[in-house]
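Section 4.2 – Deliverable D4.2 (structural model, holo form)

The reporting period included a commitment to supply a predicted holo structure for the target in complex with S-adenosyl-L-homocysteine. Inputs used:
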Amino acid sequence: MRFEIVTIFPEFFTSIFENGILRRALAEGLVSVGVHDLRAFTHDRHRTVDDRPFGGGEGMVLKPEPLAEALASLGIQPKAARQKGPQAADSISSEGGGGFNPRIKPQSIGALAPEEKLVIEPVLYQGTTLQLAEKLEIEPVLCQGTTLVVPQMQQQERGALATEGSYSEKSPSRPHVILLSAQGRPFTQAMARELAATERVVLICGRYEGVDERVNELYCDMELSIGDYVLSGGELAAAVVVDATMRLVPGVLGNEASGDFESFGVADAEIAAADDGVPRSQHGAGGLLDYPHYTRPAEFGGLRVPETLLNGDHAQIRRWRREQQLRKTLANRPDLLEGAALSKEDRKLLESIRQEIG
Ligand code: SAH
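Output (structure tokens):
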């Protein structure tokens, strides 16, 4: 996947892409980023990107013309013109309920073993109307009622579609254009997952009092906020979106599954007791916050690592971790409990924690 960032401070991003997971992901070509200097799209001596607000008031506003030119240089037309073109096929969702909705016969769902690959014959994707020209194999699939959940769609499979299938030729994926804004929809892990499955995402960084609203109206698919506070520019917000999204692109994290098993992870598909009697919900985060982590030494600052983690009993460890998730979520983010996938055992545990803390 590729991010295009439009900013008046391109140098802001240098250090962000030179460290850690993002640096490795970029070096390995799993993801790519283009940073575009908005001032390169001005034509006056002072390279002016801002102007005074109509109607008066404090501060300056980013002018629409340089932004429109910057977007045009990335091949992005106003939305109205785009909609006349071929239907977009960019919103393949890695979770049920999104645009990824293959038609397969019910009996082939029933026949799937947990580790078996799902094979989709050439098919029409509903919603995003993606015509699949060839057979596609997808990694383990979970079945939630009538919804298919594909945990990870492999990078190479999408790549193969783009080069060989009709995916890019007949239904070119169009970029998702996002305006960073304190007035936007709140950015969440679920959105990061959606973006990670999108081929190209354009981020427009505002400055001063913001961006001329017509840029939003004409070009943007979404206004995105990273939280209920006002930053001095969209660059920090863009960096947050890029970081949270890129680590979810298949192959970027060392362990493919780890994105699912941390705070705000995907909900467990099945709340049922596994063979070992441990509710399945304890294997994943299920929409809860993560459990606490410990490493060596076993004793530090007078505090010992919880005994359960040292004894090697994995069923007990899973239970302990699930309890910690419930405790932490109840303490710090009780709002998440409403949407979390909780087993009967979880609910009992939660009740006793509630009674314990009064
Ligand atoms: N007048 C605006 C704030 C402008 S701050 C208001 O009251 O809403 C300047 C720029 O910083 C914005 O255009 C936006 O791009 C960015 N920004 C500020 N807060 C943000 C937030 N919480 N999330 C995302 N971007 C933000």
